[in-house]
Amino acid sequence: MWRISDSNEESIILEKIKRRRQCDNQNEENDENEVSEDRLSDLPDSILLHILSFLNTKHVVRTCILSTRWKHLWKRTPAVTLYTSRFSISKQFPIFVSKILTLRDTSTALHALDIDCGGVIEPPLLKKILNYICSHNTNLQELGISVTGDTDLVMSCVFSCRALTSLKLSLYPRGCYNSTPTLFPKSLNMPALTNLDLTNFTFCGGENGCAQPFLAFSRLNSLVIRSCTVKDGQTLNISSETLVNLAMHNNSPEFDKIELSAPSLCTFTFIGSPYQQICGDGLSSVKQVNIDARHFLTWEKLPMVLLSWLQDLANVKLLTVSSITLQILYLVPDLLEVKLHSLCNLKSLEVELTPLNRRLELPLIKNVMLKKAAAKSRKEVAKLRKAFKAGLKPPPIPDGIVGFLLQNSPSAKVDFTTKYPGTFKIKA
Prior knowledge:
It is built from eleven helices and 19 strands. By secondary structure, the protein is an alpha/beta fold. Among the domains are: 287-356 and 396-428, no CATH class; 368-395, no CATH class. A twelve-stranded parallel sheet has the order 1-2-3-4-6-9-12-14-16-17-18-19. Helix 9 (361-374) runs antiparallel to helix 10 (378-389). The two termini are 34 Å apart.
């Protein structure tokens, strides 16, 4: 979606540039009559500008010291990326942004702008940024804005950018950080939009109690929804003939249902608490699923929701789940006796081991284990309680649950991974 690479890639490119210059300087010192060959600088402007468009603008500006060939080249890059996280002193960021917008060659078309202010931005600077966007809205194709400020002003600017193919918005009203989601407009005239990434928005329901915010995007390919909710309704409708990738992260529990109609959907990613039932045929076409269930509040509901999702995954081939997701699923009464009619085409199952939260998940899992022991005998309960007091911890993956998932695909490959090697030991 976005051209901008991570800091490691930026460092590699910049290091290559520096090494080339050092090599050339060394050659000049060894033989003053030999003309050093700077192949990078000999490339046409169009190629150099394309290379620079993959870097953070802070690093792009630094290339001006390499030689006179590079002195003003940064002013004509078609992509501008400005992240406050790249500045060790926060006060430097607004100064840098202001200078970039002032010194950049205004005759050069701006194709991509990604700006993350990392919190509250002063109104004058926000207006300057938005005015700059509006002045280049004809050619602007990729836009990303993460800011705490006047959200109405931001949305008004976005309305003018009708050539966008990618839009990423993370908006928080000034003085209401992490609350009061921004109202998402019921219609946006962006016929070319293929990628949409939204954080902290409210989708308004209609007379039928169903919010349908994405109907106008006839070419939508990728949709990411983070920390969003529904107002005046209990159903979020996601209907798209072209949608291929859908990701939902930490959305509100204040709506009950996701009505999904996306016959082309291939990848479904979920992070957070699985509050919402998914209805429609949206999951039947999915080939790759990633589920990382977290921070649960209504335990009684979440296991059954997870099970219903799995039962709808008729054609999934790649399934990635966290170990906590499996712990939640295991709370379904008599789960291992349930006969799945899905996951018949599964080729790969990856389980990511994640530590249980000591105050939330751990006590609950222990209680579940005690209940299962009580079904056998009082002696088993007493034995298990004693073991818990002695330091016994629940297994990271409930016994039998991997086999439960593989009951219709016993030959699927199973891998275990973790970001916590100090907590979990995985055999190579």
